[in-house]
Amino acid sequence: MTEWWHELPLTALDAQQWEALCDGCARCCLHKLEDVDTGEVYYTGVRCRHLDETACRCGDYANRSVLVPHCLDLRAQDIAALRWLPATCAYRLRAEGRPLPEWHHLVSGDRETVHTAGMSIRGRAVSDEFVHPDGYDEHIIHWVE
Ligand code: SF4
Ligand code: SF4
Fold first, then answer.
1. Is 143 within a domain?
2. Ligand 2 pocket: which of 47, 60, 71 to mutate (most atoms within 8 A of CB)
3. Predicted confidence band of residue 8 (pLDDT cuts 50, 70, 90)
């Protein structure tokens, strides 16, 4: 069987394949802080309020860019230039020509393995409804790189 996710470049994926490539970790829906001096990006455990954390899916995917103006349509971006994407992000891995990990659902055949492998944010984040932006630095985490 052809493993299109390993054979095709991102630019050759159709819409269905593009969506299927997402591992469902929801790490990209965590707020990030950037050190203005070094450019280093720090992940926080504060998540977007529109995320369904149990499912690790956006609660309103079709309107996400309207609800959250800085929420990007990744397909319109140069993935390789998005340094803030987690190192485990399937789009980043493929943009770098690297294989998907064994816990990715396309490899494992199971959408739950991203969670059982501890790679998603399920049960680990707090909604930004409950944290003032000035306090995000108190929620810096180190389990996302
Ligand atoms: S970090 Fe990448 S793979 Fe994970 S949910 Fe976000 S877009 Fe999908
Ligand atoms: S709007 Fe949806 S996709 Fe965008 S950060 Fe929030 S939960 Fe994630």
1. no
2. 71
3. very high
Q: Is 130 a domain residue?
A: yes
Number of domains into which the chain is organized:
1
24: in domain: yes
Does 144 fall in a domain?
no
Determine the Cα–Cα distance for residues 19 and 75; give it in Å rounded to an integer: 10
**pLDDT tens column, 50-71:** 999 999 999 999 999 999 999 9
31 pocket-lining for ligand 2 (C-beta < 6 Å): no
Tokens 């389990």 belong to which residue? 143
- C-alpha 90/C-alpha 23 separation (Å) is 6
